[in-house]
Amino acid sequence: MKNSVLKLLAVFLILSLAFVSLGCTDSSDYSESNEANDESSSSTNQEDNQPDLEILEYNDERGEYGNLVIAGQAKAHKDFSYAEVKVKFYDQNDAVLGTSMDNINDLEKGEVWNFEVMYLGTNEEEVASYKISPGTSW
Asked: Does 14 map to a domain?
């Protein structure tokens, strides 16, 4: 009995290590932006070295009710059943104020998506800068 418990424990440990080594990661490669519009990617398409989800352009603007909105366009270089764009907001001391995102389902290769990410904090005047990136996509 003791031997079978040890075997079961060993199998569990091996499976756990395999799962951890495969990883359940999210792309968090943010590209800084408050000055210029940079391109970002969640992962790279090996065939043509283009990002799978490319942020074409973006800017910050005020929404209908005066709230801070990061609006832009992203282009799919492959089919996605789900894709997102994330924005991380910072104050003047580079402290994180929060994150927010916009997402879409069924984005096809070659399609351009108009995204809008709204700052959800209570005091937009605190936002001194932000970083934008494609988020989780599959």
From this structure: no
